[in-house]
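Lecture notes, unit on protein representations.

Consider one protein chain, 154 amino acids long.
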Amino acid sequence: MEAANDNHQRPREFDDKLVAHLPFLHKISRELARNSEEAEELVAMTLLAALRRWRVAVQYASFMNWLRLTMRAQRNWMIRKIRPTAEMPLNLAASVNVEASVDANAVVASLSGSRKGRMMLAVGAGYTYEEAGAMEGVSRKRVYQIVQEYRRAA
């Protein structure tokens, strides 16, 4: 187990390299994020993760590729930390009117009441079949079958 704060052992060259790559991080974050606030949060989370895992960076041949992978991992975490529930209203950018938004919220509310519906919401929120299955205690194949059932029924 690593010490909680081993930054005093981190080489100065790593910090200098990280600062030199900040423009690169900002560029990637604008491509991955939906808005400027999310992009800034993604850069901050990536920097924090990079500082925590500085020893891993030494093992990679390309520092830029390691930073890109670290940022993608942070972006995936950002996406998955929010799980849809019946109480959470959908913020639909494509909704033409209030009725469409109300209809979408009704669908989410009806899905979240059942086990199969929760798996559908998880897959719709970006979880993989494996992750959705793990949340409900079923196999990846069963989640796939449930998704296919819903698609055929729609």
